[in-house]
């Protein structure tokens, strides 16, 4: 069976990605640490393609990558593709979003997750984008998850990502939605192509 390299260095995302990918009976490998890809794309999907292709070429394997982040409407989509670089630590990034949003009454936001799967030659075999709408709270709530989870309130579920169980987050999150869209196609794919 062909190996698929999971092209992420983020441990929180890795844990979630592995949960989805385990359903596929693929032989998964982690991205070697020395392979660093500059996220120079202006959109989530551009960055997901870039990461999947570069890691595939470097490892001569299939590679799957996601690029995700938070877009806040009243901040013109920020932090967007800069979500991981909006501060040094999760707490700094959360603080910055809350500070920039201040007491703005329009708290609408969405999490976006783009996923791309690259063949060993760097060409993209499949891609998709999942979106989860929500709102930014005035302060964090809940202790689970990672990143911006405590301040992202999913109105449909009545709780933040940080208050959801792993199973709930996997089902309702942007990553969950992206995988739900992609899974039927992934199941049909012949990795030896
Ligand atoms: P990247 O996809 O590695 O460029 O980074 C995405 C960044 O967006 C992460 O470092 C988090 O700050 C944020 N992010 C992405 N998905 C989630 C999530 O499910 N919960 C909280 N923060 C997230």
Automatic annotation (TrEMBL):
Cofactor dependence is on: Mg(2+)
Q: Name one GO cellular component term.
A: cytosol
Q: Which CDD domains is this protein grouped with?
A: HAM1
Note accompanying the cofactor annotation? Binds 1 Mg(2+) ion per subunit.
What are the binding positions for Mg(2+) in this chain?
Answer: 38, 67
What Gene3D superfamilies does UniProt report for this protein, alphabetically? 3.90.950.10
Keyword Chloroplast assigned to the entry: answer is no
Name the enzyme's class: hydrolase
For this UniProt record, the keywords arranged alphabetically read as follows: Hydrolase, Magnesium, Metal-binding, Nucleotide metabolism, Nucleotide-binding
Report the protein name in the record: dITP/XTP pyrophosphatase
SUPFAM superfamilies referenced in this protein's UniProt entry, alphabetically: ITPase-like (SSF52972)
Q: For this protein, what reaction is catalysed?
A: XTP + H2O = XMP + diphosphate + H(+); ITP + H2O = IMP + diphosphate + H(+); dITP + H2O = dIMP + diphosphate + H(+)
Q: How does it assemble?
A: Homodimer.
Q: Which GO terms describe its biological process?
A: nucleotide metabolic process; purine nucleoside triphosphate catabolic process
What task does this protein carry out?
Pyrophosphatase that catalyzes the hydrolysis of nucleoside triphosphates to their monophosphate derivatives, with a high preference for the non-canonical purine nucleotides XTP (xanthosine triphosphate), dITP (deoxyinosine triphosphate) and ITP. Seems to function as a house-cleaning enzyme that removes non-canonical purine nucleotides from the nucleotide pool, thus preventing their incorporation into DNA/RNA and avoiding chromosomal lesions.
- The entry's substrate-binding residues are 8-13, 68, 146-149, 169, 174-175
Keyword ATP-binding listed = no
Origin species, per record, is Leptolyngbya foveolarum
Q: Which HAMAP family match?
A: Non_canon_purine_NTPase
Q: Which residues form the active site?
A: 67
């Amino acid at each position: 069976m062909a190996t698929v390299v999971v092209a992420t260095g983020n441990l929180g995302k890795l844990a979630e990605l592995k949960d989805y990918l385990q359903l596929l009976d693929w032989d998964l490998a982690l991205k070697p640490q020395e392979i660093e890809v500059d996220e120079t794309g202006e959109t989530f999907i551009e960055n997901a393609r870039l990461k999947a292709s570069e890691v595939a070429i470097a490892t001569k394997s299939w590679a799957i990558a996601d690029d995700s982040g938070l877009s806040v409407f009243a901040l013109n989509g920020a932090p967007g593709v800069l979500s991981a670089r909006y501060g040094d630590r999760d707490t700094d990034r959360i603080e910055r979003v809350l500070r920039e949003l201040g007491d703005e009454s329009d708290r609408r936001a969405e999490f976006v997750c783009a996923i791309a799967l690259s063949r060993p030659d760097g060409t993209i075999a499949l891609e998709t984008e999942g979106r989860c709408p929500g709102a930014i709270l005035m302060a964090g709530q809940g202790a689970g998850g990672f990143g911006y989870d405590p301040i992202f309130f999913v109105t449909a579920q009545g709780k933040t990502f940080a208050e959801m169980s792993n199973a709930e987050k996997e089902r309702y999150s942007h990553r969950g939605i992206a995988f739900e869209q992609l899974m039927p196609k992934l199941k049909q794919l012949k990795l030896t192509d």
